[in-house]
Design goal:
The protein is an alpha+beta fold. The protein is built from three helices and six strands; from the N terminus they run E-E-E-E-H-E-E-H-H. It has a five-stranded mixed β-barrel with strand order 1-3-4-6-5. A hairpin with a 5-residue loop joins strand 3 and strand 4. The longest helix is centred in the middle third of the chain and has 10 residues.
Length: about 140
């Protein structure tokens, strides 16, 4: 049996607030756009930049989390798969859509990042005493 892979990994920023809707059977679906940037130097040494826009879709609990915590400009890491579909618009014109169906997402900016940078309640600050066991004499004997 031959195997195949349909995997997309992106890091980017939301282009607009996610839209969360529910299907007739109550399943949550979130849709939004993600911008990724590429930069390079041209032959004259000038920096050039290009932004690619990606249509993303998330389902169920992940869709609800996205709707609750993400907003325009949020930086995220996503993993998913490419999906192509067609539909007829209200004028009967066939439309083609390429989208990424997300199965994993990590928020790269937000409360956890702020806490790690020193702004959160979990940061004891520089004047707090160290916790846990201190170095022992055996640690000083190690060559690394």
């Amino acid at each position: 049996m031959s195997r195949s892979v349909n995997k997309v990994i992106l890091i980017g920023n939301l282009g607009k607030d996610p839209e969360v809707r529910y299907t007739g059977s109550g399943v949550a679906v979130a849709t939004f756009t993600l911008a990724t940037n590429e930069s390079w130097r041209d032959a004259e040494g000038n920096t050039q930049e290009r932004t690619e826009w990606h249509n993303l879709v998330a389902w169920r609990k992940l869709a609800e989390v996205i709707g609750e915590y993400l907003k325009k400009g949020s930086k995220i890491y996503v993993e998913g798969r490419l999906q192509y579909r067609t539909y007829d618009d209200k004028n009967g014109v066939k439309r083609y859509v390429t989208e990424i169906v997300i199965d994993q997402m990590v928020m790269l900016d937000g409360r956890n990042r702020d806490a790690a940078a020193g702004g959160g309640a979990s940061d004891p600050g520089p004047s707090s005493p160290p916790t846990g066991p201190g170095p022992s004499a055996k640690d000083d004997d190690l060559p690394f």
